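INFO worker-7 received task bundle
INFO bundle size: 2
INFO processing item 0
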Amino acid sequence: MEQFSNLAVTLLNGSINNSTTSIVVDDVAAFPITGNFRILIDNEYLLVTNVNVGTNTFTVTRGVENTTPAS
């Protein structure tokens, strides 16, 4: 089941490349911690499939909806 959280915002905590699948962010508090949800980085949609609250890490599938993975 896909979850939704309107206007949830956080910042990347470190750099990513176009194949990174574990993304560390500043804060996950505004995001669902169960289920899948989508995030937007630049013009790329990513599907978040897991949230690690202890490390503020999203596990993601890159380039969903035919978007190009961002660096």
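INFO item 0 finished
INFO processing item 1
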Amino acid sequence: DHYRLTPGQSTTLTLNERRLLQKVARGWSNKRIAAAYTTSPKTASNNVSLLCAKLQLPDRVAAALYYWGGMDLLD
């Protein structure tokens, strides 16, 4: 099984970014992420967008696949 629960340690993600990525990968909505971080859904959306940009991924679906080790499914 080549899937993993988190990106390798070689990523440049901070601990908070890794936690956000985990939530995105588990299908959390922006509203739910916002509640967990006590912020607005718009801020959560912006943070997800920044995370995707940092990972050079097009969207949260690709971010979830990245997290679960399934990037080959995008091809």
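INFO item 1 finished
INFO post-check item 1: Residues 15 and 21 are 10 Å apart (CA to CA).
INFO post-check item 1: The mean pLDDT is 87.
INFO worker-7 idle
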